[in-house]
Amino acid sequence: MNKTGWRTYRRPDEKSGGHGVGWSPIIPYAFSVPKDWEEVPVSIADLGGTEIDLRFASTQEGRLFVIVAPVLRFADLGGDATIEQIGPPEKVINAFGPEVIGENVEGKVLTMEVAEHSGRTYYQYELEPPHALITATAAGNRLYLFSVTANGLQWKRHYKDLKRIAESFRVV
């Protein structure tokens, strides 16, 4: 699909997050999705609960969500944590994968890559089953987990688009 069928979502600066006292504002993030993907209301009853900041979905292709979690839950790293300070890719996926997919990730991680964009490190994972592409990074005092998931048929048909969505995630 060409660039014209896609749009970039950027988290509005004024959007508040349901986070406790003492938290700095959430640093905005952005990603690209095909035009037919739509924002879906977040419920605190969702898997990941109150830490899910955003959801998008497409009935044809799959769904995505962003978890923004306080780094303090995992380590006291001061104000501006990096993903490397939280741990290497293996440690991060083992610690947070279950929050994302709802089960232990052991034996489900197909690939693990480290990418750098504008001086920020991103860990990228592909898991199955269930089919999921997860991008993790840290900024400020938060960990960002961006997850793109799909059922078997959607995965087969739209893998390239799903991978492009997952790889487009950036904290701005």
UniProtKB/TrEMBL annotation:
- Set out the biological process GO terms recorded for this chain's protein: photosynthesis
One Pfam family recorded for the sequence? PsbP
What residue stretches are annotated with the PsbP C-terminal domain?
Answer: 29-171
Q: Which GO terms describe its cellular component?
A: extrinsic component of membrane; photosystem II oxygen evolving complex
Taxonomically, which superkingdom? Eukaryota
Q: Which residues form a coiled coil?
A: none
Instruction: Extract the GO molecular function terms from the UniProt entry.
Output: calcium ion binding
Official protein name in the record: PsbP C-terminal domain-containing protein
Organism the protein comes from: Nelumbo nucifera
